[in-house]
Amino acid sequence: MSTALGNHILVEFMNCDPHIMNDVAAIERDMVDAAKKAEATVINSTFHHFSPYGVSGVVVIQESHLAIHTWPEYGYAAVDVFTCGEMNAWIAFDYLKESFQAKSYSAIEMKRGSVNLLTRNDFDISTMRQKANEWVNPGFYTRNVWFTDKDENQALSLRFTGDVFYDHQSPFQRVRILESYKYGKMLALDDMVMTTEKDEFHYHEMISHPAMFMHPNPKNVLVIGGGDGGTIREVLRHPGVEKVTMVEIDGAVIEACKEHLPNIAASFDDPKLTLLVDDGIAFAQNAAPGTYDVILVDGSDPVGPAEGLFSVSFYTNCYNALKENGILVAQGESPKFNEKAFRELNHTLQDIFGADKAPVSLFFVPTYPTGMWSFQYGLKGNIEGPFHQKEAEIETFVSTHGLRYYNGALHNGSFALPNFVKELIKK
Ligand code: SPD
User: Fold this and answer.
1) How many angstroms does the Cα of residue 375 sit away from the middle of ligand 1?
2) Other C-beta atoms within 10 Å of 47: how many?
3) Is residue 368 lining ligand 1, measured as CB closer than 6 Å?
4) 294 C-beta neighbours (distance < 10 Å), count
5) Helix axes of 339-353 and 312-321: crossing angle, nearest 10 degrees
6) Residues 6+ apart with CB under 8 A from 214
7) What angle do CA 322, 325, 330 make, to 5 degrees?
């Protein structure tokens, strides 16, 4: 007869594969599978990824729990497996050692709840046990896996199903299509949310239509980035457009979105589109001066391959590539999340286009940290501010295409800035 209520093993897995140590979906799967191999009954799992790296999580089993904390930068995982009853924790240990490709390890085993130290009291558990048996239904297993996009002080977390539809390390970034409960499938580049099925229209309508209606006759449009295809889908709704050139650096993003986000990647076959898988920064540098009516910079955040999209030289090249009267719109970051990038981009645009020629449009994206996001404009030549006389035309366009974010009132309204934002961009 056992002299303890439980058995606890505390494990150090060392020199593990760092990519696995940073992969919340893989770790959740391995921990749940380890529990099942050891013949435990899994009740639920909760796992979080921490940007830029690290995973923490727990699998609750009817026989107690498995828990983990990882430090990918050290290839290290601290794991504990607590069991009671007949379950053999060492089976879970063996499975995890293989799965994490741990080259070395150490472990200690402790008995927990020594019956020599405990006094059993008169506690009638028969009815509770019956209740517990009703509740502990082996078929009822809930997963709780969280994807977190954050800086050092704030975060946005989305609970996702744990299913990974696409996961590829391209030469530029890690490209993933994951599935969130609330917002459907989402594109993540490295650990940042780029777009989701349920709120992509906020971003794609607002990067395109205000500029397309502000310009008197946009025919030739350049999109830099935008590999998911949402921006070209919106631009190509405008019947006057004759040519759209899209330059996306990472073919893996296009491939992933065509396969898994077809409603966003809906216009890659349009005959007006010229698609180039190439470096948008070099493309802007080599573009013939005075070519485009509208340039849309649909880049990701200023880290990794998109860093150069926030430079003075890039926007100077875009200015030159615009026709005499033209509009540039750039993904402008958040005045509440990346204040520095937001302000510096606006100052760059003010310097290049003119102090009164760099308006900012604010809109909401629930799946970006803080939810408050921006597009920043450069208006070249005679293009005048956001204000327009086209409300009826816009409303017809909105209802024809069933737009769900942009409308005539927002066309002007999104350029109205809160005082703190005005203050932030004041030179
Ligand atoms: N922090 C997210 C910034 C996202 C910018 N690009 C989104 C791509 C949508 N087409």
Assistant:
1) 11
2) 24
3) yes
4) 26
5) 40
6) 327, 379, 383, 386, 388
7) 50
Residue 140 pLDDT exceeds 70: no
Which ligand 1 atom minimizes the distance to the CA of 194? 7
Supply the pLDDT for residue 132: 57
Grouping H, G, I as helix, E, B as strand and the rest as coil, residue 317 is helix
Q: DSSP of 200-257, one letter per residue?
A: HHHHHHHHHHHHHHHSSS--EEEEEE-TTSHHHHHHTT-TT--EEEEEES-HHHHHHH
pLDDT at position 275 is 98
Omega before residue 52 within 30° of 0, cis: yes
pLDDT at 163: 85
Please report the pLDDT score of residue 154 as a whole number: 80
Q: What mean pLDDT is reported for the chain?
A: 92
Which pLDDT score is estimated for 1? 54
Strand (E) positions, 21-63?
Answer: 42-49, 55-61
- Cβ(203) – ligand 1 distance below 6 Å: yes
Atom of ligand 1 nearest to the CA of 298: 6
**Residue 325 in 3-state DSSP?**
strand
> Could you tell me the distance, in angstroms and rounded to a whole number, from the CA of residue 363 to the centre of ligand 1?
13
Contact 242, 219 (CB under 8 A): yes
State the pLDDT confidence band at 30, using cuts at 50, 70 and 90: very high
Shortest-distance atom of ligand 1 to CA 193? 2
State pLDDT tens for residues 332-357. 999 999 999 999 999 999 999 999 99
Q: Is the pLDDT of residue 314 over 70?
A: yes
Instruction: Give the separation between CA 185 and CA 177, rounded to whole angstroms.
Output: 7
Tens-place pLDDT, residues 92-109: 999 999 999 999 999 999
Amino acid (one-letter) located at 298: D
Give residue 299 CA to ligand 1 midpoint distance, Å. Answer: 6
Q: Would strands 174-180 and 243-248 be described as parallel, antiparallel, or unpaired?
A: unpaired
Of 422 and 130, the one with more pLDDT: 422
The residues annotated with a catalytic role in the active site are 298
Residue that is written with structure tokens 């409303």 in the block: 395
In the predicted model, is pLDDT for residue 317 greater than 60?
A: yes
Query: What CA–CA distance (Å, rounded) separates 326 from 380?
Result: 5
